[in-house]
Write a structure and sequence with these properties.
By secondary structure, the chain is an alpha+beta fold. The chain has six helices and 14 strands. Bound molecules: fe (ii) ion. The site of fe (ii) ion has 4 residues, from loops.
């Protein structure tokens, strides 16, 4: 069965891949998939007839880079100068997780108990619309690619939007570019995309006080000649070197431009699909879900690199 990649109808970017057997991805196929991702501006949608196994999703993830640990899975990982908790190495923590039957790369997203498949209680914020973001942009080397695998989807709602930050950079008005050029944004690690405070974090007094990594606003996309905006999340974003009100004003203008509807594609999910996207090229967000519906996804991600200014 041959691999087939075509453009998504009516979208400004993105490709649909069919004909992939995720249980046997050879080098030639992996090369073709990486090329397809570049050709389709960092978003590929895979159609599968059946749900993938964890090993198959991890193998598909490996096509795009080295698998990265799921957020919060390894204590201290990615947050500070020490790789892992003092006295407990990353390897020890991984071994302990595996002994408990937990895959350290896999994250469960949704209102379903991963063990039983039954609906479970979630915070009310789960059902609302999540803000545009790049995954884990608050760490020093944010993940390059993220993958979502649809296990259970609502009949309606729960779509995922993607927004090209290469298109946003290409069309950035000159005055906005002049004010952003050479500056960075501090990417707050306090809140998740659905507005929940992460474990161990406290709300900062102001965005300037938030804990997070500073990355350049205009970045170079590795492996391509492209420039992209890199804004992270709007909540608690801060531009060091500016007064807070100036930072807020510039961020508002940048976000208004970066999320223009003509830069976006909205994906409606079908069970079994995988969408892989490049966080260095696109931001994403989730649309609201009906509280009476179930939505359950598996997510993996690949290790990124330090963000290089454009
Ligand atoms: Fe996300």
């Amino acid at each position: 069965m041959g691999l087939d990649v075509r453009q998504i109808d009516g979208a400004p970017f993105g490709g649909i891949v069919s004909g992939l057997d995720a249980s046997r991805i050879d080098d030639e196929t992996a090369d073709a998939l990486r090329a397809a991702s570049r050709d389709h501006h960092g978003v590929l949608c895979f159609r599968f007839d059946e749900l993938l196994t964890v090993d198959e999703l991890n193998a598909l993830t490996t096509v795009f880079g080295e698998n990265e640990f799921a957020p919060g899975m390894i204590t201290g990982y990615g947050r500070g100068p020490v790789d892992g908790e003092p006295g407990r190495s990353v390897a020890e923590q991984v071994a302990e997780l595996r002994a408990r039957g937990i895959d350290p790369y896999l994250m469960f997203i949704g209102n379903v108990d991963p063990r039983t498949g039954e609906r479970r209680a979630v915070n009310d914020k789960f059902f609302g619309e999540w803000e545009w973001h790049s995954d884990m942009s608050y760490i020093s080397a944010p993940p390059a690619y993220s993958l979502l695998h649809a296990r259970q989807v609502p009949a309606d709602g729960g779509d995922t939007g993607f927004c090209s930050q290469v298109l946003a950079a290409r069309t950035l008005p000159a005055d906005l570019r002049a004010r952003a050029q050479g500056r960075g944004i501090k990417h707050d690690s306090t809140y998740s995309s659905n507005g929940i405070i992460r474990p161990g974090m406290v709300e900062p007094a102001t965005p300037a006080d938030a804990i997070g990594e500073i990355h350049p606003i205009l970045r170079r996309v590795p492996g391509t000649d492209q420039e992209a905006l890199f804004l992270g999340r709007r909540t608690n974003g801060y531009i060091p070197g500016l007064a807070l009100d100036e930072s807020e004003a510039l961020l508002d203008e940048l976000w208004a431009h970066a999320t223009r509807p003509d830069f976006t594609y909205r994906h409606h999910w079908t069970v079994g699909e995988v969408v892989v996207w490049d966080n260095r090229v696109v931001m994403h967000r989730r649309h609201p879900v009906d509280p009476d519906e179930t939505r359950f996804m598996w997510r993996t991600q690949t290790r990124g690199e330090a963000v290089v200014p454009a």
